[in-house]
């Protein structure tokens, strides 16, 4: 009979379980964490590199930016898929989202907190429940080569940093994709007199929100049954399928750590915050851009985890524990076979 496994043996089993969970498939909207995989070889700078197809994606819903003027109530991009890789020195994020048209002013951005001070995802603006802190923003725009490494700490403070440590590249493809998101409807709130209600501190108008789950393809056209031509619905979840054609894939790359105090610094095995923003730069008949500046699609804070290098010591301890346990069992069995001394 063998006794209970040692502490080291239990740690070995735990390590195997954690590794299994890290590699388990992730379905969109089932996690709040982007899993940044540790890879061997060079970090892919091409959004179409085959390695990206092997990396699990995490999908996040996007909503109109309504925290400060100029607000927007409807946006083109309803959700964004995110993948990540690193090699212990550099880290890369691939953003993938549906946009029916490729426009010079199309743009995307990542946002991170800097330091330990909690910041609001709206450029670190102090809010009622968040004191506010600095944020680091990586910005890419279709008609501008590379990326801009920026920082902010409140509305109107966004500026480009002296040190530019971020690279980016975007590719738009005329292909179909499916998008799952919560359709958001913002309704201006009224006071008792029927007048627009305003925030007592800022004077900004207040909105109420209604949401429903929708599944859409990039063109925004309802998907139909190929046999009957009827619109497709999911009876259980009330999901609508619509066709969309046009997909942006944008890669951002930077070193995990830098010498710039304005940069967010990353360590494998931790869970830093991350947020996303996207602009549909389509030019309207009036000559204005459909989305620009503060008029954009945004997410709140989520998380990412850069996979740490394997700690082989845990497996070694587990192997030693197994060998010791087997040795003890061998000694006990041998004594039982020999019987008591005469």
Your description of this structure?
The chain has 342 residues and is mainly beta. The chain folds into 2 domains: 1-30 and 313-342, no CATH class; 31-310, Immunoglobulin-like. The protein has helices at residues 7-23, 312-338; strands at residues 33-38, 58-61, 63-64, 79-86, 90-98, 107-113, 135-141, 144-152, 159-160, 167-188, 207-222, 233-234, 239-240, 242-255, 273-279, 297-298, 302-306. The chain has a 15-stranded mixed beta sheet that branches. Strands 12-13 form a two-stranded antiparallel ribbon. α1 (7-23) crosses α2. The longest helix is centred in the last third of the chain and has 27 residues, at 312-338.
Major sheet summary line: 15 strands, mixed
Cα radius of gyration in angstroms: 26 Å
Low-confidence stretches: 1-5, 7-29, 233-240
Classified by CATH, the class of the largest domain is: Mainly Beta
**What gross morphology would you assign?**
elongated
Q: Do you know the CATH architecture of the largest domain?
A: Sandwich
- Distance N terminus to C terminus? 24 Å
State which percent range the strand residues make up: 35-45%
Question: What is the count of helical runs?
Answer: 2
């Amino acid at each position: 009979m063998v006794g209970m496994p040692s502490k080291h043996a239990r740690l070995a089993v735990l390590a195997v379980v954690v590794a299994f969970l890290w590699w388990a498939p992730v379905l969109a909207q089932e996690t709040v964490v982007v899993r940044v995989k540790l890879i061997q070889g060079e970090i892919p700078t091409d959004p179409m590199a085959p390695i990206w197809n092997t990396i699990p994606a995490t999908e996040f819903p996007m909503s109109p930016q309504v925290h400060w003027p100029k607000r927007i109530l409807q946006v083109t991009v309803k959700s964004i898929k995110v993948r990540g890789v690193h090699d212990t020195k550099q880290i890369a994020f691939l953003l993938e989202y549906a946009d029916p048209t490729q426009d010079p002013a199309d743009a995307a951005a990542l946002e991170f907190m800097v330091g330990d001070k909690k910041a609001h995802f709206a450029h670190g603006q102090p809010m009622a429940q968040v004191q506010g802190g600095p944020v680091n923003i990586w910005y890419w725009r279709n008609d501008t080569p590379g990326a801009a490494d920026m920082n902010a700490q409140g509305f109107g403070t966004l500026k480009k940093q002296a040190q530019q440590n971020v690279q980016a590249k975007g590719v738009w493809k005329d292909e179909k994709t499916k998008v799952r998101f919560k359709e958001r409807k913002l309704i201006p709130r009224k006071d008792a007199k029927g007048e627009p209600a305003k925030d007592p501190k800022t004077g900004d108008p207040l909105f109420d929100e209604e949401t429903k789950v929708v599944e859409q393809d990039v063109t925004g056209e309802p998907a139909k049954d190929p046999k009957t031509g009827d619109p497709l619905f999911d009876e259980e979840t009330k999901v609508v399928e619509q066709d969309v054609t046009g997909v942006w894939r944008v890669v951002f790359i930077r070193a995990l750590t830098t010498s710039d105090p304005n940069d967010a610094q990353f360590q494998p095995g931790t869970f830093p915050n991350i947020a996303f923003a996207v602009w549909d730069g389509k030019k309207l008949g009036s000559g204005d851009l459909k989305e620009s500046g503060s008029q954009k699609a945004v997410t709140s804070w989520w998380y990412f985890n850069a996979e740490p290098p394997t700690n082989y010591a845990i497996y070694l301890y587990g192997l030693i524990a197994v060998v010791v346990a087997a040795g003890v069992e061998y000694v006990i069995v041998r004594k039982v076979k020999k019987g008591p001394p005469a």
